[in-house]
């Protein structure tokens, strides 16, 4: 019965979504709010019924039979509900309807809420219709199997169980930002009040997207067994593009909110972010590329997505073209000012997103042209990977980050550059010193030096800005600073820490593969590894080959146990690496294959990943900063409307461009 | 009598993955291993894989570097056998040069356009708006 109940709930959600969109775009009123709330509830309950089917291992449900197994541990039975195409589509619908329900609860009533819920209703209608008529997760089997087909064992990992929900909160969250932009355009009201109301949604979606991407990266590092955390894989790039554009958006929203400027650009970014999120989904789901997400590939799904993408994108851009001429320019400002700095930020982030887009789709387009015979196979053969992005994106981001501490400290409307630069001399000294130390320790590479220089500059510069804001009151004022300032500072420091970690890790990691027979010794990075023996270990739904390796370092000795796990049901194997944390980084040991020529020897990959925790920690701080800014917004009462060109009328007098 | 000899030969054919004695050469070799694709793997460079193709490729890279080959000669060696697909670094020549140039051209073009407009209309009489401490930077 439970699957039929889920099916019914999904239909009820669809009906509510249709009502929500019709009423939201016409009469508006309280009924829209109730329908949006109902739609969110129905979709959530539908997801709950699917999870129940997975937990109860109801193999009469086709999806459960295909994707679960009696031997699977409980947490992965739950995660299994979204570890496949149909289930993840339901999760998508649930999150989308959930954003509508959240809008119904949190937004104050008015035309913006009605229209936004109406547009969100349209998007939800499309998603639910696709779910119900093209990929229903509730289909029953007349002849249920005795046991299920299991899940891709690579996905049996805590980080990746939470990766899709977080990613969807981000990706699909952009749909609500899109709806708010469309609503503002329909109402002809894109102003400071609009920006103030959009910003919490954009912040939440962006921060969630950050968490989702970081979880995927952590999973790649721990589970895939090669010690990489980012490989410029199309799947990764697909989530990175909307991240870049929404990062630009949360900055341009500040200008629109505080100064009333950049309104049309901000709306454009709001629309673009969701289009890129859809494009990313299309790239992952349509089968134009293969990856661990391959469960989701199917050309017809790709066509449906492309169709939806064109309609949503085309309609929004048409709305934009219609209303853009009516959008007012903000008050005047000098190019050297916080407005100017934020425009610079947007320019760089937008070009970075364009770069990632071109770098991702060019090989796919070439491959497609080659397969359809338009160009020769040789001409179609191209890969774009890390070396390319290192040469193009890295310098661009580095230059952008050089401006970060300046931008944070610059006053609105007009800034005086000279005192700002003088004030940041300590940060500059620290940056040069840090770069020297890093290069002395890690080899005299230009990349290493420049990356650390930029990272330290950002961390120290942001720290200086906090000290400046604390003012003469010093530490006594720590808790008096607004939470938004802390949110910004923590996110920006996270960026600096991430950059230091990423550069040092990329420039100085070392890896080697040793063929080892029992008793043999390998030495690396000051550690000695003695390969002792192999043993067979049985897990809940896999059998593992576990190596016992005696690792010695600084006179201390311990046994580390990397494994390869073979999953009988899925007939695949995964690597469980053994990782030892040290202050400077991770020692990472993975068990590879048996040597063909010498069955007594096994390949053991040993790698040293310096400062890897700075990479994930930096990403974590970025997300924490984003959520803190959001909390700050929610705690503050909505201020009454003020004239657009006097945003700081209620500000206490502060010494102009106060540095010094 | 003959079996141990064969075993010895086989082992010689699969030497331990010893790093090159010169650390500078080894660093170059490792950098190259990160940009040559393991053709039997799924989106991985040869540095990261334990597949036989990757092991062979790593040995080949070290051999070529030890023989004094330049980085681009090693890349060309692989590209001539497996096609451009094998290299994660698009060539900095021909039409793929545009891939490297366009982001900077876009940045410079848009930046100059916006800069000229903004500085051209610049007014001298604007005063700074100090940070709103109650709202912070936002």
**Quaternary structure type:** heterodimer
Tally of separate helices of chain B? 5
Q: The biggest beta sheet of chain A, please?
A: 6 strands, antiparallel
> Got a strand count of chain A?
10
Question: What percentage of residues of chain A falls in helices of 4 or more residues?
Answer: 55-70%
CATH architecture of the largest domain in chain B: Orthogonal Bundle
Succession of helices and strands of chain B = HHHHH
Strand content of chain A: 5-15%
Low-confidence stretches of chain B: 1-15, 133-138
Features:
A: 660 residues; six-stranded antiparallel β-sheet; four-stranded antiparallel β-sheet; 21 helices; B: mainly alpha; Helicase, Ruva Protein, domain 3; elongated; disordered N terminus; disordered C terminus
Task: Kindly describe this structure.
The complex is a heterodimer of chains A (660) and B (138). Chain A is of the alpha+beta class and 660 residues long. Helices cover 61% and strands 11% of the residues of chain A. In chain A, strands 2, 3, 4, 5, 6 and 7 form a six-stranded antiparallel beta sheet that branches. Chain A has a four-stranded antiparallel beta sheet with strand order 1-10-9-8, with helices on one face. The radius of gyration of chain A is 27 Å and the shape is globular. The C terminus of chain A is likely disordered. With 138 residues, chain B is mostly helical. Chain B has two domains: 74 residues, Orthogonal Bundle (Helicase, Ruva Protein, domain 3), CATH 1.10.8; 31 residues. Chain B contains five helices and no strands. In chain B, helix 2 runs antiparallel to helix 3. At the A-B interface, helix 10, helix 13, helix 15, helix 20 and strand 1 of A face helix 1, helix 3 and helix 5 of B.
């Amino acid at each position: 019965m439970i699957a039929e109940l889920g099916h019914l709930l999904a239909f009820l959600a669809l009906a509510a979504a249709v009502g929500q969109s019709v009423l939201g775009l016409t009469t508006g009123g309280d009924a829209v709010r109730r329908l949006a709330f109902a739609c969110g509830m129905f979709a959530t309950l539908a997801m709950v019924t699917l999870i129940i089917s997975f937990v109860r291992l109801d193999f009469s449900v086709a999806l459960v039979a295909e994707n679960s197994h009696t031997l699977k541990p409980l947490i992965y039975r739950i995660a299994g509900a979204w570890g496949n195409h149909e289930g993840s589509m339901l999760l998508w619908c649930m999150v989308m309807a959930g954003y509508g329900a959240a809008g119904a609860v949190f937004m104050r009533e008015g035309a913006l809420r009605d229209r936004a819920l109406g547009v969100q209703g349209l998007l939800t209608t499309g998603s639910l219709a696709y779910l119900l008529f093209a990929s229903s997760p509730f289909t029953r089997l007349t002849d249920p199997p005795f046991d299920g087909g299991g899940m891709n064992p690579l996905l049996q990992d805590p980080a990746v169980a939470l990766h899709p929900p977080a990613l969807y909160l981000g990706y699909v969250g952009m749909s609500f930002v899109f709806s708010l932009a469309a609503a503002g355009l329909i109402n002809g009201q894109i102003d400071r009040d609009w920006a103030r109301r959009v910003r919490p949604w954009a912040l939440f979606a962006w921060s969630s997207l950050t968490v989702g991407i970081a979880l995927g990266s952590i999973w790649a590092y721990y589970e895939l067994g090669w010690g990489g955390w980012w490989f410029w894989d199309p799947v990764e790039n697909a989530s990175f593009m909307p991240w870049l554009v929404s990062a630009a958006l949360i900055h341009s929203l500040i200008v629109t909110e505080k100064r009333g400027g950049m309104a049309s650009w901000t709306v454009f970014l709001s629309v673009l972010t969701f289009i890129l999120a859809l494009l990313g989904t299309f790239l992952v789901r349509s089968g134009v590329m293969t990856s661990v997400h391959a469960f989701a590939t199917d050309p017809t799904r790709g066509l449906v997505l492309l169709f939806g993408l064109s309609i949503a994108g085309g309609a929004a851009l048409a709305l934009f073209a219609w209303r853009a001429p009516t959008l007012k320019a903000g008050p005047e400002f000098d190019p050297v000012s916080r407005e100017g700095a934020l425009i610079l930020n947007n320019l760089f982030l937008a070009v970075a997103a364009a770069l990632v887009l071109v770098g991702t789709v060019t090989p796919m387009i070439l491959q497609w042209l080659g397969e359809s015979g338009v160009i020769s196979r040789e001409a179609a053969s191209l890969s774009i990977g890390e070396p390319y992005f290192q040469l193009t994106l890295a310098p661009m981001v580095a230059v952008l980050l050089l401006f970060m501490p300046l931008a944070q400290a610059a006053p609105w409307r007009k800034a005086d550059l000279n005192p700002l630069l003088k004030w940041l001399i300590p940060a500059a000294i620290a940056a040069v010193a840090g770069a020297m130390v890093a290069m002395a320790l890690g080899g005299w590479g230009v990349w290493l030096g420049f990356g650390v220089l930029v990272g330290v500059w950002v961390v120290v510069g942001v720290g200086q800005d906090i000290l400046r804001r604390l003012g003469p009151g010093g530490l006594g004022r720590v808790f008096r600073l607004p939470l938004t300032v802390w949110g910004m500072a923590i996110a920006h420091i996270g960026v600096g820490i991430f950059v230091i970690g990423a550069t040092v890790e990329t420039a100085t990691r070392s890896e080697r593969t040793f063929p080892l027979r029992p008793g043999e010794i390998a030495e690396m990075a000051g550690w000695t590894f003695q390969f002792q023996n192999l043993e067979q270990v049985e897990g809940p739904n896999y059998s593992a080959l576990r190596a016992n390796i005696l690792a010695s370092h600084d006179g201390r000795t311990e046994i580390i146990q990397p494994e390869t796990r073979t999953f009988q049901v899925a007939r695949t194997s995964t690597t469980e690496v053994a990782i030892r944390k040290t202050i400077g980084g991770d020692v990472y040991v993975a068990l590879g294959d048996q040597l063909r020529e010498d069955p007594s020897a096994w390949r053991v990959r040993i790698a040293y990943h310096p400062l890897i925790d700075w990479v994930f920690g930096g990403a974590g701080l970025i997300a924490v900063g984003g959520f803190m800014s959001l909390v700050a917004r929610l705690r503050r009462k909505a201020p009454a409307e003020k004239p657009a060109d006097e945003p700081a009328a209620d500000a206490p007098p502060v010494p102009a461009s106060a540095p010094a | 009598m003959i079996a141990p000899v064969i075993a010895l030969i086989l082992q010689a054919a699969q030497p331990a993955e010893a790093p090159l004695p010169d650390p500078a050469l080894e660093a170059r070799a490792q950098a190259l291993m990160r940009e040559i694709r393991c053709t039997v793997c799924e989106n991985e460079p040869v540095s990261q894989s334990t597949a036989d193709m990757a092991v062979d490729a790593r040995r080949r890279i070290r051999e070529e570097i030890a023989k004094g080959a330049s980085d681009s000669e090693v890349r060309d060696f692989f590209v001539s056998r497996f096609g451009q697909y094998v290299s994660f670094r698009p060539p900095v020549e021909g039409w793929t040069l545009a891939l490297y140039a366009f982001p900077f051209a876009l940045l410079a073009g848009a930046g100059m356009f916006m800069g000229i407009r903004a500085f051209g209309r610049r007014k001298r009489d604007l005063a700074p708006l100090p940070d709103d401490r109650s709202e912070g930077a936002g």
